[in-house]
Amino acid sequence: MMVSTLLPAALLLLLLPGTLTEETKSVPIEVVVENSLLGIPPATFSTQLVDRGILLGALKRLMASNANFKFTYTEDPNYGPYLESVNGVAGNDKDRTYWELLVETPDGKTIRPDVGIGCYIPSANEKIILKFTKW
Ligand code: B12
Fold first, then answer.
1. Does the beta carbon of 100 lie inside 6 Å of ligand 1?
2. Is the pLDDT of residue 24 over 90?
3. How far does residue 79's CA lie from ligand 1's centre (Å)?
4. Which of 15, 16, 49, 67 would give a disulfide with 58, using CB separation of 3.0 to 4.6 Å?
5. Which residues does UniProt assign to the signal peptide (predicted)?
6. How far apart are the C-alpha atoms of 99 and 133, rounded to whole Å?
7. Separation of CA 112 and ligand 1 centre (Å)
8. What pairing do the DSSP bridges indicate for beta strands 97-104 and 110-111?
9. How many angstroms does the Cα of residue 114 sit away from the middle of ligand 1?
């Protein structure tokens, strides 16, 4: 009984070596911090994330490897991680400021993702723009 249930699973593993044992690819991206609101020149960082990984993971990896990039986030009960501050500058309701998430694709188009840093899955060679701005 045991053998008959395990056999099909074992056969499947043998038939799908490329799918199940493929090494995780590394996806290169750039992160640009823009803060013209406070007159701070833009800073560009290179980092990478695992294939189909979320932006939050890439930002954490960048922060761990580069002392010039720091960020904090809060947890929204409905939408997940909210980017609160970058390099010591936090958005606030009084001034109606926030860190906007923009993405420049390799073909030069700039999009405004309709999800936050916890859900956005960057593609290779995208430029992730964290822009301090007003709403
Ligand atoms: C107003 C608003 C904002 C304002 C909030 C200002 C404020 N303090 O009031 C600002 C302009 C800051 C904003 C920003 C963003 N927003 Co917005 N926002 C809304 C909106 C229109 C209303 C929210 C609201 O006031 N609800 C009523 C109050 C009483 O409820 P609340 O739970 O307290 O609301 C809070 C949360 O909604 C939170 N919030 C707002 N946006 C976002 C986005 C994310 C990812 C998170 C975690 C939290 C969050 O801020 C509100 C005030 O504290 C909703 C759409 C909707 N109609 O609900 C979109 C919405 C929530 N936002 C959305 C998005 C995508 C963003 C951005 C990621 C856009 C971008 N590409 O930059 C950014 C967040 C970037 C970051 N720093 O992490 C999406 C979230 C979808 C998702 N599943 O992730 C929504 C649903 C719009 C949509 N349909 O695309 N947003």
1. yes
2. no
3. 8
4. 49
5. 1-21
6. 6
7. 13
8. antiparallel
9. 9
